Every structure is written in structure tokens, then in C-alpha cells.
Amino acid sequence: MEKFDVVIVGGGPAGTLTGWHAARAGASVLILEKRQEVGSPIRCGEGLDKRGIEKIGLTPSKKWIAHEVKGAHIIAPNGMKLKLTEGQAGNEVGYVVNRDVFDKEMAKLAIDAGAQLRVKTSVVELLRKDGKVNGVRTKFMGKIKDIEAGIVVGADGYESQIGRWAGIDTNLKPKDMFSCFQYHMVNIDIDPDYNDFYLGSCAPGGYAWMFVKGPDEANVGLGVQGTKLHKRGDVKRILDDFVKSVPGLAKGKAISHIAGAISACAPLDCVTADGILLIGDAARMIDPITGGGIINAGLAAKPAGEVAAEAVAVGDTSKEFLQKYEKGWRALIENKLWRNYMAKEKVTTFSDDTFNKIIEAIKDADMSQISSLELFKAVQAKYPELVKDFEDLLM
Amino acid sequence: MVMEVDYTVCMHCGACVGSCPLNAMFLHETRLEFLENCNSCGICEKVCPVGAITGSGRVEG
Does B19 touch chain A (CB under 8 A)? Predict the structure, then answer.
């Protein structure tokens, strides 16, 4: 039977960046992608923050940057617009990327470091020995093939099947799942220097976004909280209504439809089991406020890849040994995940009126840097009752 | 009740699979399979961004 130190299920950024780190740490790595093409179809708004890219050790490349913006507009339900410059938003804006190209470049990084990658190869079952995961059963061109693994990495995205097969609880409550739909629109009238974010009932429980991809084109989409979905096909209908309601977008045309879902849950208690670890969307590492997943996956990829390689090298792939990965990723992102999850729990209950008040309060405040604390203080000064539940979270 | 997928609508995005509380769905590259433990709870029907899934009898069209 073919054998690799680390077998990674999923060829998105979580999988390929884990493969990159594992290969650099000396492991033999195989990445399996069930689609026939890495990076396609796109399931993403494609906004990436500049600082995050640096943090995960990547060099920005013209190959995958579609567009750069100077800042963001936050738009209240009553239309009031809050302009955030790059500096004010803590550089958490910046690039809009071409994910199909970005994902392929990440795959190339892993391959250049020595990893192997196979497309159109599904994992249909986990293999076990003495109850411990030790490989995967794959399907390629109609043929079943078993592959032995020192460690299996579940980087299979929102679907998160690998983890659930391994008995890791990644189940989501409807309040923690967001169903998303997006159009890549062209021929629209926009300010190409700013990404726009619309709050309130235009996207119940979530928000609507516009990530600019060029002078007259953008990804226009929204996410709706699971508990606020009632009828079949609600999300697409809500997006169609939103597009019609925004001057400048209504006349545009969609050149692509993009569907998907994201999690916005508290950090999981455990993302490892004997012989297996999870990363990225599969490990529910998405930021519960922004809905962004790439940077967190990229951060966790370093401890994931390095600990996986080390575990195989020392011959101990037990859940106990993999606590080293749990400690590693939690040190990097767990606090922020918790804080943003608590904030999301509150924000999803806000009415349009509350959003209007908050944007108004922030708009009037003089802020050089929009930190959570300064936002909080600005709102507290005007509407203390709105933020009283937040005090212990931020002070 | 048996869940059905309209493949002229489905975009195989996996929103349903990751939302299934019983892990009773599997997405082959572009084809959905409902496993025996599906109890037709209808969460997949609600979560599907485009409304490609029917059959629970619990979600309005």
C-alpha cells in the first residue's frame, strides 16, 4: 500500500498551507482534492487583509491580487455611511484576490516544498488500525485505492466530513451557520477604492458585502443566519432584493453565481483524535464577525504542519501528542475567535434601529484607529444601554 | 419522506452537508447522497442558498 507521513484531505488554502509547512519540516506529504481543479469553483468573497497575508508568511503577488482598496464603507440600514480608511480599520482591508489563482499558487508552494497533490480524488472513508486513524480510502476515476498515512489532516472545508467520521464533534447549531450567495457583477457604478458592507435586515443576522474587483466590477453577496431562514431558496431571493435596492448595482450583470456556507461558532473544544487533526473551515476556525477563514487557516497551518511532521518523525501520532497542535493554534487565534463569537451573539440580535444608532455614534466620534475598545467607548458615550452586555468583553 | 435534489439548481457548494446535524449527507464531486440515517429534518432545505433541496415537508417553497 502506498504510504505518506501526512495525508491532507482538501486542496484549499488550509490544506495546501498545512502541506507546505509539513513538507518543509521534512514529512512526505500527499494532498487530495476531490474537484478536478484546485481553487475552482470559487466559494468566497475574496477579500483578504494585508496584514494577515504577512502574518501567515506569504509574499503578496500580482498573480493573485485582483484589486487593492483604500478602505471600507460601513453602511447603516438608513443609508448612513461610515468611511473607514485603511489605517482606521487596522489594515484589516486591502486586497481583493482571485481565489482560483490564489489557491493554485498556495498548492504550488506546497508542491515546491516537496508535497504531492492529486486532483479529482475523493476520500470516501477513513481507514483505522486498532481504532486509530491510519489512512484513507480514495476514489479516483472510478477506482478505489487505499493510502496509508502517519497522520490524516481534515482540511475539507465547511462540509467537515473527515472530522465527523473520526468522531470529532464539529456539528453546528442553526444560529452558528450562515448561508451565503454572491454574484460576481460587472458593469456596476461603484467607488472602486472602497469595499462596502451593509448592516441590518438586508441580510438577516449577517451582512451584505461588496468586494471590489475592478473599476466597474465586484463580488456582491450576503450571508444570512440559519435561524433567520424560513423559505426554500431564501438566500438567493434576499440577495436579488438587495441588488435591486442599491443604486449602481441594479443595472449590473452577474458573470458568476457563487454559493456556500460559513460557520460562526465558538472555538471547538477539540480538533484532534488519534492519528488525525482538523484545520481551517473544517475545524470551524472562521472569524465569527467577518466570516473570513483564510488568515486563521494560514496561521493554524504552521503548528498543524510542523506538529504533524514531528509526530510522525517521533512515532507518536496519538491524540495526546497532537495536543501540541491544539496548544499551537489556540495560542494564535482562540482568544479572538471567542471575543468575536461573543460579539456575534450580540450583534445578530440588533434591530435596524440599533445599527443606525451605532453607526451614527461612531460616525461622530473622532478616531484615528478603529479599535474594538474605541468603537465601544464611542457607542457607550451616546447609547450606554446598547453596550452594557459588552463591558466585560472589552474592558 | 425522501429528500430530493434538483441538479438543475444545485451548485454543489456543500452548505447542506456541513449543516446536517446527523452527518447524513455526502457530496460526491457534484452529486449529493442522503444516507440511511437522514430523518428529513429539513435543515439542508433551509440552508441551501439556492433552494435546490425538497422533501422534508417542513419548509415552505
Answer: yes
